[in-house]
């Protein structure tokens, strides 16, 4: 039996967008991370990087701080994603010491596929999660993302 709120595509899109943005922050309960990592044949840290970079290029330092992983440990992750043709490193025009990381078209497509996988998972949530709960979760996720971004800005 289908849930009535799953026919509200705007709500599903909003929740999907928030889950996609919050994916690096969420446990396995709301999003089956194991299913995503298996489907796309990559570790969760790679999924996190793709999700973060879908919002635009970031420096290696910004990625490091966002994931709480030391810069030297980020390099092999980026190398692996680069080998798969998903991202590239580009030196800043303003300051050659700064290296920006950005998604290539294949990386953008992969990020969109990850987002779609999340949408499919949200659509399969049990009927006991009603529209009211879904809206509250969506608002909470939006608040979580906003607050996390504000806190991250303090680190920059």
Which secondary structure elements does this structure contain, and how are they paired or packed?
Layout: H1 9-22, H2 33-40, H3 44-53, E1 58-59, H4 60-67, H5 71-83, E2 87-91, E3 99-103, H6 105-123, H7 131-155
Antiparallel strand pairs: 1-3, 2-3
Helix pairs in contact: 1-6, 1-7, 4-5
- SSE series: HHHEHHEEHH
| Major β-sheet annotation | 3 strands, antiparallel
Strand content: 5-15%
Task: Describe the strand arrangement of the main beta sheet, using strand numbers.
Answer: 1-3-2
Gross morphology: globular
Describe this structure in words.
It is a single chain. Helix content is 62%, strand content 8%. The chain has 156 residues and is mainly alpha-helical. The protein has a three-stranded antiparallel sheet with strand order 1-3-2. The chain is globular, with a radius of gyration of 17 Å. The chain starts with 8 loop residues before the first helix and ends with a helix. The relative contact order is 0.18.
Quick structural overview:
The protein is mainly α and 156 residues long. The protein has helices at 9-22, 33-40, 44-53, 60-67, 71-83, 105-123, 131-155; strands spanning 58-59, 87-91, 99-103.
């Amino acid at each position: 039996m289908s849930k009535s709120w799953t026919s509200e595509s705007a709500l599903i899109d909003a929740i999907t967008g928030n889950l996609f943005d919050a994916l690096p922050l969420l446990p396995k309960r709301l999003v089956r991370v194991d299913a995503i990592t298996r489907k796309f044949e990559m570790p969760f840290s790679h999924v996190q990087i793709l999700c973060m970079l879908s919002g635009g290029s970031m420096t290696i330092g910004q990625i490091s701080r966002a994931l709480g992983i030391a810069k030297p440990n980020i390099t092999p992750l980026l190398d692996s994603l680069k080998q798969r043709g998903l991202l590239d490193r580009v030196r800043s025009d303003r300051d050659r010491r700064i290296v920006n990381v950005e998604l290539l078209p294949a990386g953008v497509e992969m990020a969109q596929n990850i987002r779609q996988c999340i949408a499919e998972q949200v659509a399969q949530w049990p009927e006991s999660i009603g529209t009211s709960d879904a809206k509250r979760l969506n608002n909470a996720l939006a608040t979580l993302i906003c607050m996390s971004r504000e806190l991250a800005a303090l680190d920059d």
